[in-house]
What does this fold into?
Amino acid sequence: MKLSPFITSWKEKARRLKTQLYVLYLAVRDSRTPWYVRAFIVVIIAYALSPVDLIPDFIPVLGYLDDLVLVPAGIYLAVKMVPREVLDEYREKAVSGQVAGKSGWIAASIIILIWLLLLYLIIRAIWL
It folds into this structure.
């Protein structure tokens, strides 16, 4: 079954976005990346992977607008902030598939721990 050009275009854009997120993840671990860029990238990656949004998805139109605008805009800004040599090196590795490992599990574990900590603090604040 042949996919329409519209769907193919969106799949390609989603694949590139995923690659960019992975490149940024790798750039965070590089000592050549400034600390403030690392902090910004961590926030963007956490927001992109997090099930919690600024505007909940059940709100018509606005719910998905933050995902369609904030994440790509944050990735664009982060890519502009990362030193060019770092970005080129990791982009090449990510596209060629040279980098593999448990990075996905580590990132997911960190995000889950952060949300569990926030949930604990909220419950503690309500009950005290």
In short: The mean pLDDT is 80. Helices lie at 5-28, 35-49, 62-81, 84-96, 103-127. Residues 5-100 form one domain. The chain has one domain: 5-100.
